[in-house]
Structures are given as C-alpha cells and as structure tokens.
C-alpha cells in the first residue's frame, strides 16, 4: 500500500453539494479527494501542473460537462493517460457507450455503493501502475 502521506489524488467533478460531500467522505482515507464544481475548474487545476492519479466526473455539470471535460483531458498530451471514471444518474446503454467511446475507463451509476466505487478506483489505479494492492 502507499504511505498515508502519498495517497492517490482523486479529482472529483460534481456540482451537487450533497454528492460532493458523499464522494469526499467515502474517498477520504484511502485517497486524497480534490473537489470541483465543473470541468472548467478541474481542467484549470490540471493546467496549473496538478496531475491527479484518477478523475471522477459527473456527466451533467455546468460550464463544461463531463463528456466535454473528458474530451479535453483525452486530447491533451499531458493529461491523456489519467484514468477517468464517469458518474451519472442517467442509466441507459447509449449514454454509457458514448462515455466509454469518448475515453472513460469506467461508468458508474448514481446512486452507487461506496465500497464498489472504492474497489473500482483501486482496480483502475492498480492497472495504471499507480497503486499496489496487498
């Protein structure tokens, strides 16, 4: 496992304050969450030289929605390899396919089980070589 001072950084893009709290609470501890209201704020954070270990973005956020943010990340040479999970209350096959085709590594439907979210994050980070699991 990684040392506590070297927790994997998770950028969370979520405009709903309640969901921000849930995500921050369930991910704090094994991860270091950094929360933004929209994709534009998160992309600005990346452009300032902050490279998170993984990104979780809601599909429907203001200013720059989840798909637009994902496309910005994937077309950037600096950020294109950052694992990306799309989170949404929309549960239909077309939406999931659109997100996966745009480059999302996973798609999680709200409401979600916090333990499942943590497990998915750990698996993706392990595959990316950013986390060693015992």
From TrEMBL:
Molecular function GO labels: phosphorelay sensor kinase activity
Keyword Iron-sulfur: no
Sequence ranges assigned to domain Response regulatory in this UniProt record: 9-125
Keyword flag Phosphoprotein: yes
Modified residues (4-aspartylphosphate): 58
Cross-referenced SUPFAM superfamilies: CheY-like
Pfam family, one: Response_reg
PROSITE patterns membership: RESPONSE_REGULATORY (PS50110)
Protein name: Response regulator transcription factor
Organism: Panacibacter microcysteis
